[in-house]
Design goal:
Length: 141
Amino acid sequence: MAQGKISGERIAICKALNPTWGYAKIGVHLAELDRRRVPYTESAISGAYRRYRKQQLQEERSMSEQSKSVPSTSDERTVNNTMRHQYRVLTDAEKTQMQSIKDMGLELLEYCDTVGSSREMSLAKTKIEEAVMWAVKHVTR
C-alpha cells in the first residue's frame, strides 16, 4: 500500500481497531509507521498504538511522580527535588524556623499584591522570593 495520504482504507483499519479514535490520533499512528517505513497493516497499526499508549502512560506516571506534593518540613522532601539528593534531618526548632521564614515571606508577598503592580513591584516580589530561598537554605544546610 502506498505511503503518504491517509486513505479511507487505512482510516477504516484504524477505526476497526479502536472506534473511539479520532482522525488526529489515527494520523499520529500512521505518521509513526511512515517514519519507520512500515506497511499499513492491522498488526503494524495496533503495535504503533500500543507503543504510543505505553509512552503516554509512562509520561503520566512521570508527571504524577513529579507533581507529588511534599511539605517542606517533611523528612521526605527529597522526593520531588532534582537538585539536592540528600538532606539532613531537621530538628523541630529548625522546621519551625523554616516554616516561619516562609510564612513571613508569603505574608509580605500577599501585602505587595494589594499595593499594586509595576515592574518595580515584580522585582521586589522576586527579591522577596530569593530572600526566603536563601534564608531557608541557611536553616537547612
